[in-house]
Amino acid sequence: MNSKSEKRLPSSVEVHMPICFECYKDGIQTELKYQKSTSTLMSVNEFYDEGGVLHHHDPNVHSVYYKCDKGHELILLEKPVCGVCGWPDD
Q1: Nearest 5°: phi and psi at 21?
Q2: How far apart are the first and last CA of the chain?
């Protein structure tokens, strides 16, 4: 480890870093730099079903913004899915 605070992931953990698709299709490998994150602010619906299992229905959209060395921008959008019932199933 270097002098910065650095944590190592267990070898069994896969890390998938986003890539710049514009550079990738041109055969160039560039580094993506994190810019910012945003999220919509709708209320989350948590409830127990008839079997007593907790559901977590989060209608928010989470966005993560990156920029590559060549100036291309990438936005990753995530819509959380309920681990019990798969909501939303669109």
Answers
A1: -70, -30
A2: 44
Cα–Cα dist 31/18, whole Å: 9
Q: How big is the chain, counted in residues?
A: 90
HEC letters along 6-67: CCCCCCCCCCCCCCCHHHHHCCCCCCEEEEEEEECCCCCEEEECCCCCEEEECCCCEEEEEE
Are 81 and 87 in contact by the 8 Å Cβ rule? The answer is yes
- Tens digit of pLDDT for each residue in 52-90? 999 999 999 999 999 999 999 999 999 999 999 999 874
Reported pTM: 0.66
Closest CA to 31 of 42, 41, 17: 17
Nearest C-alpha neighbor of 74 from the set 27, 34, 25: 34
